[in-house]
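ok trying again, last paste got cut off:
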Amino acid sequence: MITHAQRNVGQAGASASAGPACIDKWSLIEALTHAAESFGIGHRQLGVLRTLITFHPQRFWPVTADRLIVYPSNRTLCDRLGGMPDSTLRRHLRALVSAGLITRSASSNGKRYRRGKGANEIAFGIDLAPLIRLTAKIRQAAQTAQDQAEALAAQRARLLALLKELKAQDAAPHTSFLADLARAMRRKLGLNEILDLIGQAIARLSAVLKKASSTMEMNASDSQNERHKEQQERKKTDGAEDITLHEINALCREKATLFPDPMHQWTDVTRTAAIVAPMIGIAESAFENARRSIGSVPAAILVLYILEILPKVERPGAYLHYLVSHKDGLSEAVTALRQMYLSDDNSENQYYSDA
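nice, full thing came through this time. structure:
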């Protein structure tokens, strides 16, 4: 995570020693650690840069500084880097120069040294001042890298949830895909690769749901029993008994992006919610507790509602528990869904009338 210190790199120091407009060099290097890929450097170049920074005595650097010269010899640097070969050190220094993070001020004999003091000082060595000038860029790149890492982790968790759900279905038709997916998950996947795999998994789950729905429609007796059960479930909805399947399909637009096929029966709603719940961070036990408390259909409606407002929900599982325990939780969720729909530019669509 980006720390509080990182977010404040380049801002005024809090202590008197930092001064009114200074940069904490260690917070800056920590931010650069997250942003390294953006500057085309790796952990070895970062190690060399950290070592160079230790040769500057001040922790807080004035933002107006135009020169921050350090002048250790290559031998000294190699010793402090645990005996790094001189040729390797030179290669890493060239990479840092190419990245624009340092510059070199060479003397006539190629040595690094300082002579004189104050206005008469002459220093030849490695200049760290470019780090100050790049502070804003480093901070932005670090934040971007952190956001991308969080997005990647979230989508990877979503893919794992889909994989688990697909395995729970009839896995025979998906054996080859599951094997390929398991091998892919052992690699370091990029975001686009993960999203592509998610699309494939969703398509397969959608086909499973569609097949299950068709099978149920062919069994009239079972359907009648199921409808009776669903009616009993819907009696527990605390004032939202009037919501229809047509409404659910119209109101739950985020669900439609994941599973485009409409839900034809209430069992489709509960089955879809069971797949969505782990994808959005709701534990299986939390969803099961909600089903036991208010019924399968109401719990499913709440999960689909949370999916609609997911960007605004920090802890989906905790919010589901709140809605379940709140007397008017379901009614409020249904009302909110309707209001969100009506606030859309296409509010003239009469979702509340059965097709």
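cool. The first helix runs from residue 4 to 7. Residues 222-355 form one domain.
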